[in-house]
């Protein structure tokens, strides 16, 4: 049965600085590179056929390190549809400073609601509106052809995919946390239906 593996990029410089990143292109920290390496170690048993990533450096670098660690040279498709949620006016701001400016409750609503976007930005619903059609058009096509697929992307674009694969409601998906550098391994049947889910950690 084909496998679909999702990996959120390793820690970025702005993750470390507690800043809203969105579409701003920032690099991995040394810890982030180590997380990517560990993810590669955890995935050495899977023979991937194709990989997908966003147009942002932190996801691409994570993917490069994973594939190098596994020792795989496979086609890599990069697409903006897999970019992180666009945080609009919040991008670049420290999250504590944003709470001071707009209020704790409002910022929490922007971050954790499904369909309320920050100023000039995207909600999770908006992110899903670009990620899920791309998933259906390309990634699921590979799955239905029996290929093993690796996706290196971002917390919110991956939330959209998790929502689709696990058939979660908007209320359920906003509670889902996707940690950096931790592979989520789905086994799917020939019709793309979920058979098994495994979250891999070092030491498992």
From TrEMBL:
Record-annotated site: Transition state stabilizer:
154
Q: In which pathway does it act?
A: Carbohydrate degradation; glycolysis; pyruvate from D-glyceraldehyde 3-phosphate: step 3/5
Q: Kindly state which keywords UniProt assigns to this record, in alphabetical order.
A: Gluconeogenesis, Glycolysis, Isomerase
Q: Determine if Transport is one of this entry's keywords.
A: no
Q: Which GO terms describe its biological process?
A: gluconeogenesis; glycolytic process
Q: Which reaction does it catalyse?
A: (2R)-2-phosphoglycerate = (2R)-3-phosphoglycerate
Q: Which domain of life is it from?
A: Bacteria
Q: Where does substrate bind?
A: 8-15, 21-22, 58, 84-87, 95, 111-112, 155-156
Q: What CDD domains does its record include?
A: HP_PGM_like
InterPro entries xrefs: His_Pase_superF_clade-1, His_PPase_superfam, PG/BPGM_mutase_AS, Phosphogly_mut1
Output the SUPFAM superfamilies linked to this UniProt entry.
Answer: Phosphoglycerate mutase-like
One Gene Ontology MF term: phosphoglycerate mutase activity
Which EC number(s) are documented for this chain?
A: 5.4.2.11
- The active site is formed by 9, 84
Q: Which family does it belong to?
A: Belongs to the phosphoglycerate mutase family. BPG-dependent PGAM subfamily.
The role this protein plays is: Catalyzes the interconversion of 2-phosphoglycerate and 3-phosphoglycerate.
Q: Which PANTHER family match?
A: PHOSPHOGLYCERATE MUTASE
Task: Please report the name of this protein according to its UniProt entry.
Answer: 2,3-bisphosphoglycerate-dependent phosphoglycerate mutase
- In the record, what lineage is assigned to the organism producing the protein? Bacteria, Pseudomonadati, Aquificota, Aquificia, Aquificales
* Gene label: gpmA
């Amino acid at each position: 049965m084909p496998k679909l593996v999702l990996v959120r990029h390793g820690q970025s410089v702005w993750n470390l600085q507690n800043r809203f990143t969105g579409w701003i292109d920032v690099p991995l920290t040394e810890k982030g590179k180590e997380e990517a390496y560990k993810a590669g170690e955890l995935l050495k048993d899977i023979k991937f056929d194709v990989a997908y990533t966003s147009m942002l450096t932190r996801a691409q670098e994570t993917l490069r390190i994973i594939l190098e660690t596994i020792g795989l040279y496979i086609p890599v498709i990069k697409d903006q549809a897999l970019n992180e949620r666009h945080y609009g006016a919040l991008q670049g701001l420290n999250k504590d400073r944003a709470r001071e400016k707009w209020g704790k409750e409002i910022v929490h609503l922007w971050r954790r609601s499904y369909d309320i976007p920050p100023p000039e930005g995207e909600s999770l619903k908006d992110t899903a509106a670009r990620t899920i059609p791309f998933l259906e058009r390309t990634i699921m096509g590979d799955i239905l052809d029996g290929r093993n697929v690796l996706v290196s992307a971002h917390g919110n674009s991956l939330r959209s995919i998790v929502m689709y694969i696990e058939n979660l409601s908007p209320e359920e998906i906003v509670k889902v946390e996707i940690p950096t550098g931790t592979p989520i391994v789905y086994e799917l049947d020939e019709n793309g239906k979920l058979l098994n889910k495994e979250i891999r950690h070092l030491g498992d």
